[in-house]
Amino acid sequence: MGLTSSFGSIQERIQAACGRAGRNPASVSLVAVSKGQPPEMVRAAADVGQLLFGESRVQEARAKIEQCPGRLRWHLLGHLQSNKCRDAVHFFEMIHSVDSVALAEELQKWCDKAAKTMPVLLEVNLAGESTKFGFKPDQVLGALEPINALPRLEVHGLMTIAPYTPTPEKVRPIFRQVRELKEACEHQLGAPLPQLSMGMSGDFEVAIEEGSTLVRIGTALFGPRPKSAERAMRSAE
Question: Which residues contact 2 (CB under 8 A, 6 or more apart)?
Fold first, then answer.
């Protein structure tokens, strides 16, 4: 399946999932996960109408963004180290992976120097997987207030990465619990949080049915990552 066909298919699946949930398809944004994809693949996706891209590593994104059309928008999806905050503030318009108050404070410092306001999502590790980052569910409400008080950061919602399963229905309870946690955050703040970043290539339809507004899709759009990119990423870790 070519990029044009896969892009069209994903759009149709998003619309169908929204239809099942009684949602407006315009309430869901596709974040094309371009990690490991060369700039020419990003440009090809832009040519079929995809303008929002997600990267997981600041260093890879920095080199790639400079080779891509200026009209594209970029979100940081992966774990952010404190020493990469300066570049993250410069290159991205939203950060999905704020996983500690200390990281938020470091972002605040660089946002202040850049005179920039940064929308962020708090990452939740609901399944408690040791290989993933994020707040435990019982830590989120406690972290919300000090992070939301940082003048250069705007908390827009929550993000989670569900455990992999070939049966997407199995992770529906996780998506539902994160949505309920977002609702608890809204109650604590007394204000709406517009974004819920949930769902990837294998489970995004269930995520949409449970309230996701940002679905992060790479493989279903681009196909498997090039082997050379996989090797380069492993050697960089």
Answer: none
Residues 207 and 174: their CA atoms lie apart, in Å, by: 9
Domain map (residue ranges) of the chain: 3-236
Q: Which two tokens stand for residue 113?
A: 């120097």
Tokens representing 53?
């891209």
What does the pLDDT look like over 130-149, one tens digit per residue?
888 999 999 999 999 999 99
pLDDT at 130: 81
CA dist., res. 215 & res. 52, Å (int): 11
| Distance separating the N- and C-terminal Cα atoms of the chain | 31
CATH of domain 3-236: 3.20.20.10
Structure tokens at 203: 């489970």
119-18-166-120 Cα dihedral, nearest 10 degrees: 0
Sequence-separated (6 or more) residues with CB below 8 Å from residue 105 = 150
Residues 35 and 78: beta-carbon distance below 8 Å: yes
Residue 20: pLDDT above 70?
A: yes
For the stretch 182-234, pLDDT in tens is 999 999 999 999 999 999 999 999 999 999 999 999 999 999 876 655 444 43
pTM beyond 0.90: the answer is yes
Distance CA 52, CA 37 (A): 14
The DSSP bridge partners found for residue 74 are: 53
In the chain, the DSSP E strands lie at 29-33, 52-55, 73-76, 94-98, 118-124, 153-160, 195-197, 214-217
Q: Are 88 and 76 in contact (CB under 8 A)?
A: yes
